[in-house]
Structure formats: C-alpha cells, structure tokens
C-alpha cells in the first residue's frame, strides 16, 4: 500500500490533532460508569473513527491507529451496555475495562504522535535539501522551530529512530556550514543541533565532535551562535573543550572579547567561563597565552566592570536581597569582578587537578600585577582572586 498522497496530509493532520486531544482527555477521565461514558472525549473519538476510517486506511503508517480506534469502539460499546447485575465481579470487570480504555487512549496518542513526527521530519528534510531555501525561509524556520520544540520535550525512542533514519543532523550541519544561507536559518539550525545533543548526548555527540559544527558557530560569530556554543560546552563538557583547543579555536573565542558589540563581548565572557569550568590544562593554558587575564583586567576597569563588593556597598536600589541583588548588578555591569569570577570557575570546575588549580591561581595573580595600571587596582583584583567571588 502506498503512503498517503501529499495533498491529503494537512487534512489528516487536522483529524489526528483532534484525535490526540480527545485521547488525552480520555486518559484523564476514563469513567467506567455508563452515564459518564458518554463523555465528549469518547464521543469525539468515535465520531472521528467513523469520519476518518477511509482517510486513515490509505496510509500504512496509520493502520495500527485504525485498529486501536476499532478496538475502542468495541470497548466503549461494552461499557455502555445496561448493567443489570450489581455484583462485586461486575464492578471489578467494569473498573478493569475503564483501565483498558485509558491504556488504549494512550496507545492512540502514541500512534498519532509517531505519525506527526514522521511527517514533520519528512517536511524538514525536504526543506533542508533544497538548494535555494531563501525563498521559503519563513517556512523553513517554522519547521526548524517545531523540530527543536519536539526534541526538547524529552527522550523518545521512536523519535530517535526517525531522526537517525532521516540523517537530519547531517543536513542541519550542512546548512549551518553554508555561508550562502541566511544567518537566521543557520542560527535556527544551530538551535536544533543543540536540542538534539540534549535529547540524547550519547547518540549524537560523536557527529558534533567530528564534524564542522563548532568551527561554523565561531565563523558565523553571532550572539546566538556563541550562545549555542555555550550550551554545547555545558552539555558535552570536557570532550568538547578538548576538541575546541585541539582545533585551534581558542584564539577566536578570546578575540570576541574585543568586539565593539557589548552583547557579543558578554556572550564571549560566558563562553570563557564555561571553558574555564570544564577545560583541562591545555585549554586553560591556551586562553592565558592569548592574553585572557590582561583582557579581563581591561574589561573590569571599563564602565561595565567594577568589583562586586564596592558596587554592593554603594548600590542605592534598596535592601540587600542576596543573589537577586547580585544578579541585578551583573546585568548592569556584566564584567564586574570578571577576573575573580574566572578564577573561581577554575577552582570549582571539573577539568583541573588540585595542583593545577593552585598553579593557575598563582599564574593569574602574576598577570594581574603586570596588567594593572595602579597598585590599588592590582590590590583590589588580587584580593578578589585570593578570597574568591561568586562564579
């Protein structure tokens, strides 16, 4: 049997969405009582079963759903029979039937979601394969957003199988790396890749580590691409930082701290903090060799910097509310105490041994003294580094 004609898909989707909503309601209220078994959810499912029989039977992927709906019709009919016996056995039988009704509604919902997932992935892969997606940019972004939302709902074995079969991760990376594609589309491809890694890191991380995703994110150099890079570092941790360092991408990240755009500098600093937390000795060495501490001292000296203790002392926004107050201060002055915040990441992070932490702290102190323009500035930053600051 051939798949459903493409022009019928929107009509089927409308029917299936109605079936899905009704099945969800039925799982919540699978009443065994005959008076209540005439619920709107059951009636809706039965009406749709009659209406959609010919439509669903034309798609082999919906055959199991058609069987579930036929079973539902039989089960509901038995529940609606007049109950002339009021024995315990009769009561238990009807209770068991109600539970079967709830399980059946769950199976109906699963089959519907599987069909929607398959159709959505097919639409997305077709759109990604187009040589000139710019003409359909809005539609492609809509499909990418829908895919990202779906995989963000959590792991699902059937969805994973569909993703692997469709090779959609290869297509996403291919579009991400295509400089002729609009930045908007590339950013949404990056969001989708990050969502897939969080969906199941063990299955999809290998391709990201071996592919060109990281280089493409840094080449694109937008705030969203660096935000995705930060997400990937938090998800994949030290192995990704190792790859970033091995591929020579650390200088690009440190270079972003020099951009005129404040938001980009802030995102680059967030990325530096993430690398500081998960990075091993080689990655930290690479950042320090690129003049990271000198740049952080400069940023802390700027109008967007300062030190947190002094800012809290002279803050006029009202009573101290702990972390909330510090968060407000960092929103106004994102580079406040940035040297100490980086040092704390090394101290509490996962990538370094204890002796390496001690050595790096001493190295940071030396560089702070060299980069400071006054003894007072050096003393303030060194005190923060020695005593620690909130990461």
UniProtKB/TrEMBL annotation:
Protein name as catalogued: Armadillo-like helical protein
InterPro entries: ARM-like, ARM-type_fold
Organism: Rosa chinensis (China rose)
